[in-house]
Amino acid sequence: MRTHLQKRRESAAPDPARRVLVESTAVASLLPALGPDELPTRRDLLLQVLLHLPRLARADGSVDVESAQIEIARLRQQRAAELEPLRALASPPSEAPAIDQLEVGIVERERAEPVLAHFHYLRSFRSDSVNVAVLDRERIVALCSISPFDLTTIGERLPIQTSAEVAVVSRVFAFDWAPRNVISYLLARAEHSPAVDCEVRLLLTYLNPNLGFTGASYRAANWRKVGLEAGTRYAYLNGNYITDRRLRTLSSADRAEVEYSTMLLEPLQIYGRPLNRRLAKDDELRASFLVGREPAVGR
Question: Are residues 21 and 124 in the same domain?
Answer without folding.
Answer: no
